[in-house]
Design goal:
The complex is a heterodimer of chains A (94) and B (382). Chain A is an alpha+beta fold and 94 residues long. Chain A has one domain (24-91): TusA-like domain (Translation Initiation Factor IF3). Chain A has helices spanning 33-42, 60-71, and strands at 24-25, 50-55, 74-80, 86-91. A 4-stranded mixed beta sheet of chain A has the order 1-2-4-3, with helices on one face. Residues 7-12 of chain A have low confidence and may be disordered. Chain B is α/β, with parallel strands linked by helices and 382 residues long. Chain B folds into 2 domains: 3-9 and 254-376, Aspartate Aminotransferase, domain 1 (Alpha-Beta Complex); 15-248, 3-Layer(aba) Sandwich (Aspartate Aminotransferase, domain 2), CATH 3.40.640.10. Chain B has helices at residues 15-27, 37-57, 70-84, 100-111, 156-165, 185-188, 237-275, 304-313, 333-338, 356-376, and strands at residues 3-4, 64-67, 91-95, 115-119, 138-142, 170-173, 192-196, 207-211, 279-282, 294-299, 316-317, 345-349. In chain B, the strands form 3 sheets. Chain B has a 7-stranded mixed beta sheet, sandwiched between helices. In chain B, strand 6 (170-173), helix 6 (185-188) and strand 7 form a beta-alpha-beta unit. In chain B, helix 2 (37-57) runs parallel beside helix 7 and helix 8 crosses helix 10 (356-376). Classes of the chains: A alpha+beta (94), B alpha/beta (382). Chain A binds chain B through residues 1, 3, 30-33, 35-36, 39-40, 57-59, 61-63, 65-67, 69-70, and chain B through 278, 280, 298, 300-303, 322-324, 329-331, 335-336, 339-344, 376-379, 382.
């Protein structure tokens, strides 16, 4: 299993749509990697701001919600992506 | 030091079962349906086993049948009741955290044109009896006695009462509890109960199916005269005799064993958060009753399969509900239904031969194993 970071918007895999700049694209990465991507990127999120994560691993939905609960952060929204996978919006509370 | 801590998957053959198996292979090899002496001897052994199991579970002997596995028994319980109650409706109700054998039977029913209604659970994995109210068209409902992944005990008696008010029978899958904690059908109020012998120290290949008198049931498949017409095919008399011997022996042991194993579970849950960062303990013996021998937790930023491999290398056998450990790559439906962290998941389960040394071995190895797996994923600093 690779431990490389998530794909950037420019080099992202061809999954129908390219993630917008600023979105953390963990599609194609298996759990727990999307959660590790999220935790790593979260360090640079200012309290009050949000981060957007795209992931398509079947465990990402429950695990993003559990991570927010364990880390005291807010899961603002979950949306299905048209090309598969889900978009998660997480707000840094502290 | 090695430690087998997966007694909820299966547990070694009980010495009483081993002894009974030897005797029954000698004396109970003949066809119990035949009228000559050898057949009568096998029939006597089979009848005695049935009486033993019935006595332990608070059932009548003629309510007990033996199937080839717990899965086969659960399938027969659900589909047989659904089949007999077709005129009452075509809905099977199940909790969201049932064992796969129950969910597979429900899926089968759905594929055959029936409907399935799933009832959710709280964060401890427990159903709310008020939410398990019978739906229109309910033919049968299924609620496990205790959960196989986190050990949470379900409010079976309360649910049975609500269902009975609407005339809906309840099946309880007691594979986790039979031979581990006292199980009395009179107290549970369930109409059907199933269990599996290898989970309590009996041999593999013996499932227990109890259908209470007055419960409408019709064989969902081809039937013969064996096992009261409920289970077709030649029964494995020696294995059934051994299963009954194990259950009788377990019944005498569990009063002393329960607190001892609950002590290991309590110790593990107390010490884990001190030893490993980012651990989520699942279920909660203080908030919702649990069986004494099973507990589960999830570790952040850990791949379950890698953790199992790391522990196995150190001689520690446990199981995991994480997606990477399943053939389908989907996380455990139990963990998802509870809203628990699904990755880095471990279930630890103790048995009659478990000791403090087994727990110490696990606690000795686990922190380093978690660190090693996190380091490999570049997650050790998170």
């Amino acid at each position: 299993m690779t431990t490389d970071g998530p794909s950037g918007a420019e080099t992202g895999p061809d999954r129908g749509i390219v993630a917008p700049a600023g979105t953390l694209d963990s599609r194609g990465r298996r759990c727990p990697l999307p959660i590790i991507d999220l935790a790593r990127a979260f360090g640079s999120v200012v309290p009050g701001d949000t981060i957007t994560l795209w992931a398509d691993d079947p465990a990402a939905g429950p695990d993003v919600a559990a991570w927010c609960r364990l880390r005291g952060q807010e899961l603002v929204a979950v949306r299905a992506l048209p090309a598969g996978g889900e978009e998660f919006v997480i707000r840094r509370l502290a | 030091m090695s430690a087998y801590l997966d007694h909820a998957s299966t547990t070694p053959l009980h010495p009483a079962a081993r002894e009974a198996l030897g005797v029954a292979l000698q004396d109970g090899w003949a066809d119990p349906a035949r009228l000559y002496r050898e057949g009568r001897r096998a029939r006597m052994l089979l009848d005695a086993a049935r009486e033993t199991v019935a006595g332990v579970l608070g059932a009548r002997p003629d309510e007990v049948s033996f199937a080839a596995s717990g899965t086969a028994a659960a399938t027969l319980a659900l589909l047989g009741t659904a089949s007999a109650r077709r005129r009452a409706g075509n809905v099977i109700m199940v909790s969201a955290v049932e064992h796969s054998s129950v969910l597979h039977a429900a899926q089968h029913h759905e594929q055959a044109g029936g409907r399935v209604v799933e009832v959710g659970v709280d964060r401890f994995g427990r159903v709310d009896p008020a939410a398990f109210a019978p739906v229109p068209g309910a033919a049968v409902a299924s609620l496990q006695h205790a959960n196989h992944e986190v050990g949470t005990v379900q409010p079976v008696a309360e649910v049975a009462e609500r269902l009975h008010a609407a005339g809906v029978p309840l099946h309880t899958d007691a594979a986790v509890t039979v031979g581990r904690v006292p199980v009395d059908l009179g107290v549970l109020g369930a109409d059907l109960l199933t269990a599996s012998a290898h989970k309590f120290g009996g041999p593999a290949g013996v499932g227990i199916l109890v259908v209470r008198t007055g419960t409408r049931w019709r064989s969902p498949g081809p039937a013969d005269e064996r096992e009261g017409g409920r289970v077709a095919g030649y029964p494995d008399v020696p294995a059934i005799v051994a299963a009954a011997a194990a259950l009788a022996a377990r019944t005498a042991e569990i009063a002393a064993e329960g607190p001892r194993l609950a002590g290991y579970v309590g110790d593990l849950r107390r010490r884990l958060p001190e030893l490993v960062d980012g651990v989520e303990l699942l279920g909660d013996p203080d908030q919702a009753p649990t069986v004494p021998h099973i507990t589960a937790f999830s570790c952040l930023y850990v791949e379950g399969e890698a953790l199992l491999t790391e522990l196995d290398r150190a001689g520690i056998a446990v199981s995991s509900g994480s997606s990477c450990t399943s053939d389908t790559l989907a996380p455990s439906h139990v963990l998802v239904a509870m809203g628990a962290l699904t990755h880095g998941n471990l279930r630890v389960s103790f048995g009659r031969d478990s000791t403090q040394a087994d727990l110490d071995a696990l606690l000795d190895v686990l922190p380093g194993a978690v660190r090693a797996v996190r380091a490999r994923l570049g997650a050790d600093e998170l």
